[in-house]
Amino acid sequence: MPSKEDSPVTTAARTPRGRAASTDNRPVENALGRIRAAQPGMAKSAQRIAQFILERPADIVGMSVTELSEATEVSEGSIINFCRSIGLSGFQQMKLSLAQEIVQPVQFIHEDLDRADDMGTVCRKVFHSGVQALRDTLSVLEPDALTQAVETVRAARRIEIYGIGSSAPIAEDTQYRMLRIGLDVRAVTDSHVQAISASRCDSGVATITISHSGATHETVAATRLAREAGARTIVITNFARSPIQAFADIVLFTMARETRFRTEAMTSRIAQLCVVDALIAGLALADYDRATDTLKKTFDVLSMKRF
């Protein structure tokens, strides 16, 4: 009997919450990036599939699911579930997506910094990495999930935003942006206050947790407590399986790549800010008259702060 690791994994278990697998075979962007981001949390059989695809993407385009099954020594069902775990409908969509990516590679190549780089090179690499993080995030951010997030926030009596460490400034910026359009919102960046506040939520509260790794104890605990108390939970996290997704009603994915010098605290912030911008824009457009009126009033208030 095959081991648990080698048995096919169900779609529900492998597909992150808030992100449904695609229902057609149209190519998706950045299939290889999706695989790289999700690979660390995969079971051994899925990691074998991932490694084979990452090493030989051009070969996959010409292979059948049976041939890949034999090459990786896993079942055909495991391959189909692998494809669905990264948001694809199946092996055919995987092949089409890889074919597109091979023919039309991403515009900027991911590069790490080197100690011998001059400042011009440093600037080019850092800016290109930021642009790449935005391109990658756009490829995994689901409009349907963002629509659900807008509806959830609009229906809430109060919004709480959780963030720790490098995510704390993003949480505070999100609070500021939501205040500008008239929402009752507060950012909670102290872990103890997070736990207390989350435990006192109810069905009239929506929470937004910002966590690149999705594995920070404090924010995972706050999200869990909020959901158990009846709140609707939205999570902004990097594309991959992570503990926090088990407690999320809606997941908004970013995709930022880590290197030796440029860790997730750098490019992930750019991606997170853009996701927040899209969410704020959706909220403002959904209640256009009230949002624009509140923006004008808050602008007038803030004008008193300027000379």
Automatic annotation (TrEMBL):
The keyword rRNA processing does not apply. One of its GO terms (molecular function) is carbohydrate derivative binding. Pfam families: HTH_6 (PF01418), SIS (PF01380). Residues 149-289 form the SIS domain. Keywords: DNA-binding, Transcription, Transcription regulation. Residues 29-105 form the HTH rpiR-type domain. This is Transcriptional regulator. It comes from Sphingobium ummariense RL-3.
